[in-house]
Amino acid sequence: MSAVNVKFIHTNVLHATELEVSTKVMFSDGLIKIIDAWQSVLRMDSLSCAIALFNIVATTLQFSSVARTSDGQQRVPLNFYNMVLARSSYGKSDITSLIRNVLRAIGTANGEEVNMCLDEFTRAGLMNCLNKSTKIFMSDEADMVFVDAGLFNGFAKPSTEANCRSLVMILYDRMFCPYVRRLASKTVVVEKSKLNLLGLSTGELMGTVVSRLKSGGSWDPMIGRFSWWVLDGPPMMEQLIEPVINRLIPSIEQLSFACSLIRNCTFKYDNGALSRIVMWGNSIRQKSYEHRHDASLSSLLGKSIQHVHRYAAFIQTLEYGLDICMEFIDHFKEFPSDGNIDQSLIERIDGMFHELFHEQIGVDKQVHQLLNKFISC
Fold first, then answer.
1. What CATH class does 3-233+246-376 carry?
2. Second label for 48, Cα 20 to 30 Å away, from 33, 54, 261, 372?
3. DSSP secondary structure string, 202-241?
4. pTM for the predicted model, two decimal places
């Protein structure tokens, strides 16, 4: 890559960071205070903590969706594709490490031995692991891994077996529909699947995409399916003395465990919220139409509607998890000192969840029975 292109990429990344996404806009005051308290313990800024939370709940929600109409017939699946852009020394890999550790702790607490994280990103690997399950693939080197998998236009095309672009595009909107691939000797069927993607990039991938557009290249529809986080802030300094854990607030593992009990459900807006979201969505569709001469802007405007529905479900799940944790602190005064998910906390949180969301229990039980039936066939 030429020095001119590198300078172009870094300049545009710095400009993008000026459009700061504040957690104060996304979350309630109670959740903001908890995330702010985590910063010194996790050694991560608040937005990085929020990114980790979004990816965690996107995975633990399993086959959940958002109803975008009053009759509940039109549903948006909660697949989540996102990319984090930051300089190489920012500490981006701390986000993926945290997500892996939290998902492992949740799986252990729920008695599930299945690894929710994918390690292989090939067509065969995806089809083998995704059948009737929810997975997240994370890459600390998205500039290399996602390019090798052929996800974005403008790069050399990989081999047929390594090229995951078409499969990833299909899986984004077809969580509940079977995916059938015909091979020479057999037919492979993925009956139900959910894939989440998180990539960490220093900007080369997006810079190449932008450079291609500036030179007259066509718009890549994959870009609109991703949420793009651009991070740039002061470094989190190491401390000689470990910060004291505040037992009056849940750790990220404990909050995520409470959120993980909400799964396999359909989120519905109340009448007032639905009216507002429909009006907003229609205004964005109109803007997308008015800018149809600019394929990139028109596409991003249109895809933003789906992103908003997804974030609404993720944020609502986090707020529900916070409600459960606040119930816990009201009853038991403090959380376990080590921040882990012990058996006592599991039983107490599970009991509170049954009291607050008794309708969800029956639905979740039916879905698990159905999945077990499929697996045993």
1. alpha beta
2. 261
3. -SHHHHHHHHHHHTTPPP-HHHHTEEEEE---------SS
4. 0.87
